[in-house]
Structure formats: C-alpha cells, structure tokens
Amino acid sequence: MILPRKSRGVAVPSPSITSSAVSSPEPQPGPFLSQFLVAGSKQLGSATVGVKTFVSPNAADEFDGIIAYGSITINQRVRIAEPGKDFMTDMDVFLDVQDAADLRGLEVYEPGKRLFATIRDLATWVHFDALYEAYLNACFILLANKVPFDAGLPFQVPDKIDNQDNFVNFGDAHILSLVTEVATRALKAVRFQKFNVHRRLRPEALGGLINVNKKAALEGKVAFPEVDKLVSELGPILEKVEKHNFLNNVAAGDPCPEKSFLLPQAFSEGSPMHPSYGSGHAVVAGACVTILRRSSILTTSWRTFSRLMLRTTR
Length: 314
Known about the structure:
It is a single chain. The protein has helices at about 90-100, 120-130, 135-145, 170-200, 205-220, 230-235, 235-250, 280-295, 300-314; strands at about 10-15, 45-50, 50-55, 65-70, 70-75, 80, 110-115. It is mostly helical and about 325 residues long. Helix 3 packs antiparallel against helix 4 (about 170-200) and helix 4 (about 170-200) packs antiparallel against helix 8 (about 280-295). It is elongated, with a radius of gyration of 24 Å. Strand 2 and strand 3 form a beta hairpin.
C-alpha cells in the first residue's frame, strides 16, 4: 500500500495539470487504496513556483495526509482499533444484540492515529464517517491543489466585459455544495430499494442461520434447511471461522467456549440495522464521485491525475 512520504521542508515536484478529456474508456491499474484517502493538500504558507513547491516553516507538509480546510486543517489519520478483536462470536451476545441490547461504544482503540494501513482501519472509517466525508475531502484536495475546472464551463476565463467570476456559479462554492447535495438524494433512492424492493438479510443475521444449521447438523439434526446448500459450500471457510471464534471467545474470558460459526463483527453492536442491499456508502460514493469527475472539477484525464497523486504520495 502506498503511503505519503515524509517531505517537510523539502522542495517536492508538483507536476502541472493540463486540461484534457474527462472520459476513461477502461479502468487504469493503480493502488488498492484511493490516494485521496492518504494524500494531503497545499497549506497556508506554501507556494508553488514552476514545478517546485516550497513549504515555509509554519506550513504543514502538503503530502502527509493533512488537508487544508480554510485556515484550519483535516488530519486523514484514523484511530487504531485493537488488532484481532471481533465481536458477536458468542451465541449469547449474538442473541442479546438481536433482542435490541445497545452494545455500541465497546470497541477498544490503541493510542495515537495513523494513515490507513489495514482493512480494519477502513472499517473504523466507515463506522464513524460523515457519509460524504471522503468525497468532500477529495474536493478540498483538488481545490487546494488548484486542479482547474472544465474549460467548457462558463466563467472559467478572465471576463473583462462584465467582470463575472465563477465563485457562486461553476466555482468553488458551487462544487462544494453539489458534492454534499447529491449524497442525500442518493440515500433517499437507495433507502427505497432497501426497504421496499430487495429487503436482503443482514450479514450477522445470515451468520446466525448458518451457525444454528451447522451446529444442528453436527448433532444429526435439521434446522433451517433453506441454508443447507450454502453451509455445504462454505465448509472449509466455516472451519476457519470456528477456530477464529474459539480463540476470540477465549480471549474474551470464556475458558471453554462452545463451537461458534457466527459471522465475526468488526463493531460491537453488529452490522447496521437495515437491509444490507443496496449499500448507502456505495450509492453516495457513486453520486459524489460523479459530481467531482463529470460535472466540473476533474478536467484532467484520470491517468494524468493518478500520476500526479502517485508521485506526491510515494
């Protein structure tokens, strides 16, 4: 995984970005993690001359995950959840949660913060993020780094006739409003799909069915035959789950835990209390990125912009 280099006080190459086609006919290879989640932006007190960026002693390093948010900053580092700790791997706890026990806030975090380094870091992010947070941060990065707007939009060139500018219309204020506005519209659409169309079972609930079915089968009994085929197909995986849950329950204080094939949860309260499909985070991502990429701000090709991000975050 590519993480930002430490470059405080060092002149860092800052390639210029030129206008080109927005369309990308096929995905381009790149890092597993979006560089917008680890990159920072130019700060107050930094300046670019030609292709070099000079950072004054009182300015934050523009490539260490610190984003300019006006005159204050946003730190992209996340809290570090206790490694290897999962929840709801015990049937009693599982049933408590199903019976509406409020177990929120029982996660344990290590001291300090870090840039994304593990999948659990990403889980911690989506657990607590403001839903459009990542895309608003990306917008701040683009604006602070002076990525130009689409040259075809109005008010993008100096207007010496009637002195109109692009702040309210097709400018910074406009794009910041649009990125947040589309999030709620996407959520309303997907909520209808969740509750009125698909009504998919939540992950932890499916894990409960599998657990009861598997334990009944070990005793020569039948329970929930609807998941027999799924349990059979998951055979080798369920063996690993059982070993993992055993160790997790022992670590939680049970010296002799029962067999458990429950789906381990990253959050103490389990999975969200609504159908799992469609995904709220997914539709918000699609809506917000569409605004960033198609409507106005990303006038460079993705390949050109990716090269810039990779060069400044290695």
